[in-house]
Amino acid sequence: QNALLSGIGTTIFTVMSALAMQHGAINLGQGFPDYDGPEDVIEAAAAALKDGRNQYPPLTGVPELRQAVATHNRRFYGLEVDPNAEVVVTSGATEAITACLMAVLNPGDECVLIEPLYDTYLPVVKLLGAVPKLVRLSPPDWALPRAELAAAFGPKTKAILFNTPMNPTGKVFTAAELAFIAELLQRHGAYAICDEVYEHLTFDGWKHIPLMTLPGMRERCMRVGSAGKTFSLTGWKVGYITCDRSLAPNVAKAHQNLTFTTAPNLQRGVAVGLMKEDAYFAGLSASLQAKRDRLAKGLAELGFGVLPAQGSYFITTDIRPLGFNGDDVAFCRALTEEAKVTAIPVTAFYASEGAPSHYARFAFCKGDAVLDEALARMRAWL
Ligand code: PMP
Ligand code: GLN
């Protein structure tokens, strides 16, 4: 059997969701909304399903969705994208990220990753025989350590994979940080896989900037989006990659060998979603910002140290002020079993030694009454 896969455990999201179920806990762990996505998007998918759009669609995606991805890129970021040669639709961002890594990495190539990191990144880099180079952000501000990032790049660097807006930190990379990454990519002739699944979930006037929009980056970036996050439909698993026409053939060949195609009816629904009016996208971030504020205020009142979150579904909290006797893993377990509220220990997002072990991540993409009930349960427990 594959030693690498045998050596990793079941994903923390599944582990904590199972524990939540077992104890009847409110699940603020795994990041999924407890409300449905827009009705017109769901209706469009249902109509396509009933219309007999149920056989293999084109390998790179149905034309309507590829066109919608291209239009969305122009509308929000001023990017000119050829829908026939620069878009690949995948079965979720998870597949998209794997396909992009497969497209550029050869065994022995180095790939820069930023900790804390999403749990699928490292196993895939390693399975491809590439060598991960980890650079760690420091809480509580999660600023990019520039000297360390520059030191992680070298003659063998082929790519960087990073996430903005970022899970689990809620960090949105600044224009200056992106410019620094762009300069390193230029200098080393490297590519970027940009996990931008939370692109529409930014708060307090923070704007998401795709690295791809910076000078010289159009040919170097593979930009990944997800219908799961943009339309609150995480179970659909429809992702989309935007990349230069020089990269797209390899990305498409990776997709061809992973899943080949993605549910055509769902793709048609997502195409309708990406064409929705500006008010939809503004409303999505406004509603999540209000939920972030609701949970952040409540957690701060309970004594948690609440770290700032500029985007995503998540806030991270420092549990030290609570005086709990144990690390983040013990805390999240006790919180689930005793308070009946589930959070995710942030050490799960670290692969190297010496990770901070006093942070818990809470997802706020839940109904207000659910957030209030979770806070009430924690108040009674603490
Ligand atoms: N990247 C990040 C940072 C995520 O949080 C998620 C969440 N599921 C994904 C990728 C995967 O997205 P999808 O469900 O579209 O595969
Ligand atoms: N992205 C989601 C999170 O971070 C979970 C995805 C998953 O369950 N694999 O909570």
TrEMBL record:
This is Aminotransferase. Residues 26-376 form the Aminotransferase class I/classII large domain. The keyword Transmembrane does not apply. Its cofactor is pyridoxal 5'-phosphate. SUPFAM superfamilies: PLP-dependent transferases. PANTHER family: FI04487P. The keyword Metal-binding does not apply. It comes from Siccirubricoccus soli. InterPro entries: Aminotransferase_I/II_large, Kynurenine-oxoglutarate_AT, PyrdxlP-dep_Trfase, PyrdxlP-dep_Trfase_major, PyrdxlP-dep_Trfase_small. Gene3D superfamilies: Aspartate Aminotransferase, domain 1, Type I PLP-dependent aspartate aminotransferase-like (Major domain).
